[in-house]
Amino acid sequence: MSLKESYQKHRRAYFIGAGCLVIVLCWWAYAHAKSKEPKYTTVAVRRGDITAAVQATGTINALTTVSVGSYVSGTVQYIFADFNTRVKSGQVLAQLDPAIYEAQVTQARGQLENAQDNLVTLAANVQVDQAGLVKAEANVKYQQATAKRSQDLFTAGVVSADANELTQSTMGQAVADVQSAQATLDQAKATLAQAKSNVVSMEGGLKAAETSLKYTTIISPIDGTVVARNIDVGQSVAATLQAPNVFTVAQDLTRMQVYAATDESDTGNIKVGAPVTFAVDAFPTDLFNGRVSTVRLNPTTVQNVVTYNTVIDFSNPDEKLLPGETAYVTIPTGHVKDTLEIPNPALTFKPPMPAKDIQGLYKQYNISRAASTTHLGGWQVVWKLDDQKQMIPVAIQIGITDYNNTQLLSGPINEGDTLVIAATTPGQTSTGGQRPPGFGGNGPGPR
To answer: 228 and 244, same structural domain?
Structure first.
């Protein structure tokens, strides 16, 4: 049978087959075109509560920690306190060998006694010299009277000139004796004053020696608990350029502090008195509470990362927490109730289309530069699906974030609106980030 005869006999079947082929080709073309369209991952906007918080790690410290040093050098003879020993102010912690300092005290005391005895001798010499001066002054008065009488008798011609000159010379010698006695007395007084100064110096030397002897007994300056002991019996302690640290005493372990290293971008949101929660590895199921007491002004820079110590006070009545433990701190910085929540990935989503087309959409929907580029004032761009399932950009202003959702302050977004957080095309995937641009702080979880 020829092809023509077959066609004429089965023409209906040919038409049905051709129609099916056209339908299959059309379906394939539609499915192929459909597969090239991006697939969107969306999230509906809903209401909820948002709590913003700063996450940081810190170290637990005692409220007051005193390093007890040794002012003098010596060999450790006795130790009366060990780690975790509770001590009182003035309690003896250790004893250095006092032998050399006792010898110094004995030597200084002997030198002082010698200087005091010398002072007594010199004081007696001064009294003798004072008596000699009084005697010389009395002799001068007598010689003056004798010289006057001799002069009167010489004038009357009763006494010879030689006798009168002898009398006048004797009076001059008596005056010279007074001057000599006065100089001797002044010298004795000067020597006595020097001896008095020497006694004062010796007294100072004795006090210094006694003080050094006292420092061989190392005592606790405060009530507290010994948290470190750096010496052993028989060890030599050398206090040359600085006092070596031999004990560390924590004053009160029932009131402690956390020194949390907070990022510089978070310090503007941390307020003094803010409640704080923190956890430690030793008690993973417990949550501890405290309050921010201060943000210290002294910055720490490590690899161009600037942090500040935020000091958190807390009570430790059971003394469960120990100095030096690592604390994972959460500091709330803001809280809003019943607000529209913008999923954070929606704030960083970029459509998989050329930048020129995106800029065209920004212009079409009047998206400001603050929202699309600078993000000043908290302005951002999100992409919403309209009724025709087409993406349109929307400018919104945002507030605080918990790093999962962000507060909506203003913008044409309503509850139930669908926001795009990711778009997938064959061979290419675009998703939102973890945090909106311009947000400071730390991500979820302890650092």
So the answer is: yes
**Residue that is written with structure tokens 């006292």 in the block:** 214
Residue 49 three-state SS: strand
pLDDT in tens, 292-351: 999 999 999 999 999 999 999 999 999 999 999 999 999 999 999 999 999 999 999 988
Output the pTM of the full model: 0.66
Does 434 score more than 60 pLDDT? no
Residue 45 · residue 415 · CB < 8 Å:
yes
User: What are the tokens at 327?
Assistant: 């604390």
- With beta carbons less than 8 A apart as the criterion, state whether 140 and 173 touch: no
Residues 260 and 114 in one domain: no
Domain hosting residue 156, numbered range: 99-215
Is residue 439 situated within a structural domain? no
Q: Are residues 75 and 158 in the same domain?
A: no
303 within some domain? yes
Last residue within a domain, chosen from 317, 335, 353: 335
For residue 444, pLDDT over 50 is answered with no
Instruction: Write the CATH number for 243.
Output: 2.40.50.100
What average pLDDT is seen over the chain? 86
Q: Of the candidates 431, 361, 418, 369, which has an alpha carbon nearest to the alpha carbon of residue 393?
A: 361
pLDDT in tens, 89-124: 999 999 999 999 999 999 999 999 999 999 999 899
d(CA 194, CA 209): 22
The two tokens of residue 384 are: 């919403």
Q: What is the largest CA-CA distance in the chain?
A: 206
Residue from 341, 261, 295 nearest 55 by CA: 261
Q: What is the per-residue pLDDT across 367-426, written as a single tens digit (0 to 9) for each?
A: 998 998 888 999 999 999 888 778 899 999 999 998 899 999 999 999 999 999 988 766
Same domain, 82 and 44: no
Cβ proximity of 112 and 203 under 8 Å? yes
Structural element, H or E, at residue 27: helix 11-36
